From TrEMBL:
It comes from the Eukaryota. Gene3D superfamilies: DNA breaking-rejoining enzymes. Pfam families: SCAN. Residues 240-326 form the SCAN box domain. This is SCAN box domain-containing protein. Residues 334-343 have a biased composition (Polar residues). It comes from Holothuria leucospilota. Residues 94-120, 334-397 are annotated as: Disordered.
Length: 397
């Protein structure tokens, strides 16, 4: 049955009002001029209508007691707070759970790390133990206590008695490691030692740093002569300047043939080039030009160039000019050795290089003796003094 507003107004009742829809209650509220918000719920508008009818004495006040209670703002706020509190509780529980999982993960990681470190320590101790045992047995082998064929040594000598040949190994010299290896290799070829036994023979004479390097090698590497030699040479590696000086200063010994001398000279040159990483014609050209440039400059500039380790001629020349300008080391057009005659010597009247044009090769052409140089300096001073006096004399009169 459709809603009849006039019928409801003529005889309003709570029962009929409860049976109305929201749109119908809105019509009733508008009829009585009741103010309400359109977004209000049906129960809220209904309560406003009941309160109006009670106020106008159309319905008794008891109807309000049985009417549906509309939630107040405080009720909604409490509900919201309860929801937020429950949400916060859940978040805290989740956070505590994450913390527990994190602590458990860290505990497992610590246990794994401790186990790993323990295993590494055990492996290191085992390696050290094996190395000590190996070194001890090699020492016994050297002294002839046991034979090289002893299976405990772990070496298959193939019938080669190492103990009989150890005494022929040359004495190790830390100041000339390359010579030691060259001597040993020559003996090995001459005595026809099996190359796979060279590492056993050579270790018996190691001392100092070489012994430390050999002991640090693994058992496999210590049995490889080439790896042993490489490790020892790296430990005693010289700077390029030392290789250069060896090449330049090496002279033929009386006991050498010219072929042997040429061979050693070539080896020194190759080591110098290798230390400077010379592999092409251009790098070799720069190496020779830079060396010649350094040979022609003052010792102070040469030291400065050595400290900066320049390997290109252009870089070296720029560094030399910068040093000369910074230290006012001569001017353009002046000889490099000008400053060498500026400090007098008590005995000779001058110190430093005795030659004004002498090169580093030791040539004495155009040399000036210290005594004559000192006298010439004195004569020039007297002449300058005389000219100054003659110039000033007319001014005084």
């Amino acid at each position: 049955m459709p809603f009849n507003l006039d019928k409801f107004v003529a005889s309003p009742s709570v029962e009929e009002l409860d049976s109305l829809k929201k749109s119908e209650i809105v019509k009733v509220a508008k009829h009585y001029g009741i103010e309400f918000q359109p977004l209000m719920r049906k129960d809220e508008i209904k309560r406003y209508v009941l309160e109006y009818l009670v106020d106008e004495s159309i319905l008794p006040s008891t109807v309000l007691e049985t009417a549906i209670t509309v939630p107040t703002d405080n009720t909604f706020e409490l509900k919201r707070l309860e929801i937020e509190m429950n949400k916060e509780i859940r978040l805290k529980e989740m956070e505590r759970e994450r913390e527990r999982e994190e602590r458990e993960r860290e505990r497992k990681e610590r246990e794994m790390q401790m186990q790993k470190e323990k295993e590494e320590r055990e492996m290191q101790m085992q390696r050290e133990k094996e190395a000590r045992e190996h070194e001890f047995r090699l020492k016994q082998l050297e002294l002839g206590v046991i034979k090289a064929s002893d299976p405990k040594i772990g070496l298959d000598t193939g019938g080669f008695d190492v103990s009989k040949h150890v005494k022929f190994v040359p004495k190790f010299q830390e100041d000339n490691v390359e010579k030691f290896f060259n001597h040993f290799e020559k003996l090995g070829e001459q005595l026809k030692w099996p190359r796979d036994k060279w590492s056993i023979l050579i270790q018996s004479n190691f001392t100092g740093k070489a012994q430390e390097v050999y002991s640090a090698l693994s058992i496999e590497d210590s049995m490889d002569y080439d790896k042993v030699k490489k490790a020892i040479l790296q430990a005693y590696e010289l700077v390029p300047e030392a290789y250069r000086q060896k090449f330049r200063k090496y002279r033929k010994a009386d006991t050498q043939t010219y072929v042997e001398f040429a061979y050693q000279k070539e080896r020194h040159f190759d080591r110098w080039c290798a230390s400077k990483k010379v592999s092409t014609f251009d790098t070799l050209r720069q190496l020779m030009l830079v060396e010649e440039f350094k040979r022609c400059v003052n010792d102070d500039i040469k030291t400065h160039l050595e400290e900066n380790k320049a390997d290109k001629l252009k870089e070296v020349a720029n560094l030399a000019d910068q040093y000369a300008l910074t230290h006012k080391f001569g001017k353009v057009g002046q000889t490099q050795n000008k400053g060498q005659f500026s400090r007098p010597n008590k005995k000779y009247g001058n110190s430093g290089n005795n030659s004004g044009t002498t090169s580093n090769s030791g040539s004495q052409s155009g040399s000036i003796s210290p005594t004559n140089s000192g006298k010439n300096n004195q004569i020039r001073v007297v002449k300058r003094t005389t000219r100054s006096a003659q110039t000033k004399l007319p001014l005084k009169t």
